[in-house]
What does this fold into?
Amino acid sequence: MENLFHKKGAGYWLVFFTLLLFSQRMAAQPAPEYNRAMIKPSVVHLNPGEQRRFKAIMLPQRREHAYLPDCVKWYVNGIPGGNTEFGTIDPGGVYTAPGKVPSPVEINISAEVMEASNSFLWATVLLGVPGYELIDSWVESRDNAEYFINPHGITIGIDGNLIIADEGSDRVLRFNTKGEYIGDVGSGKGQGPGYFNFPRIAEQDSSGNIFVVAQNHREPRVQVFSPDGQFIHRFGGHGNWEGRIIRPHGIGFNTKQQVFIPDVDLCRINVYSNSGDFLYSWERGGLDAGEFDSPHGLAIDANDDVFVSNFFSPVQKLCRAGRFLFAFGYSEPCEDHRPVIHAINADHYGNIYVVFVGGHSIHKYNNNGDFITSWTLSQPDYTPIWAAVDKLGKVYVVFSGNDEAGVEIYIPK
It folds into this structure.
């Protein structure tokens, strides 16, 4: 009887601690949110001097109708009320286009609605045909490569310089925007803390620390470095159980500086504290709405809404709690190629830049999933691998070609 009691008691304690752990994980996840807003229209084409009214709308909740919020702040290209160059917008949301076509022709309309869980809303005005033009590049021949063997990820640091992960040389490199080498992050190829195997992407948090996601054979997948590139710590060990990672591909930070990492092979998104403690995961592989199929790209906007791209498309937008909102960016196969999505990025207006490998193109969508424009690189064999966008809208694209690799820089026109 005593042994039976101990066995039963052990079972009770096991159930208790399992439920306790589950409740802690649930508490770590943000609560579902439904007090969301939207902006209408999402995209408009106007001529100089024309007007169009925009509306911020609080979406209906359970047994409650939609309504117009009392207080909305309006911006044009980030300027309260706008200006004569890019157009003006009054407190009622009426936008008046400028008297002549500006450069670039794409205008960003922003609405700030504090009562909404997604306080920032964005729409697009087009006063012509949007596009991007090449303004600069730096290229290395594969035969005499000093830095680029197989560049994979690119990001813009908080100091404005570039950080590029090269999985061919197992290095994380820093350059200024002119392509001049500044130095390495970490210790390059090898095993152990501070070393890399197949680094995929590096991103900086708001304090300047550099988080590097790498394959790192059977070692932690995420390493953290100081702003000057010195190793601090690592987390996200190899494996398929809770908090572990098999094949990371991307990284993002929300406004709390929590770390989001997509796992290609496990088809899930792991979320960690900034210090590397595992918080929770969105673990739902599949093809239905809100499910992940080889997730490769991840971006987070100012509302903490999360964009995740499946390798075979589409891009999905999720609220901060992981609830599916909508999908966009479906691939369109052609006779000579089958485009897949390798990476995505976001700018400070919430626009999403989707890198299609196979299609050799970059597609731009606004925050509501509406297509804005697309472009290809300067040479037919240049395949875009990753793209980063600075605060002025300049796009830095790391590419790989048959005989060359490097970076091309584009501005909107």
About this structure: Residues 10-27 have pLDDT under 50 and may be disordered. The CA atoms of residues 309 and 385 lie 14 Å apart. Residues 132-412 form a domain with the Neuraminidase fold (CATH 2.120.10.30). The longest strand covers residues 132-141.
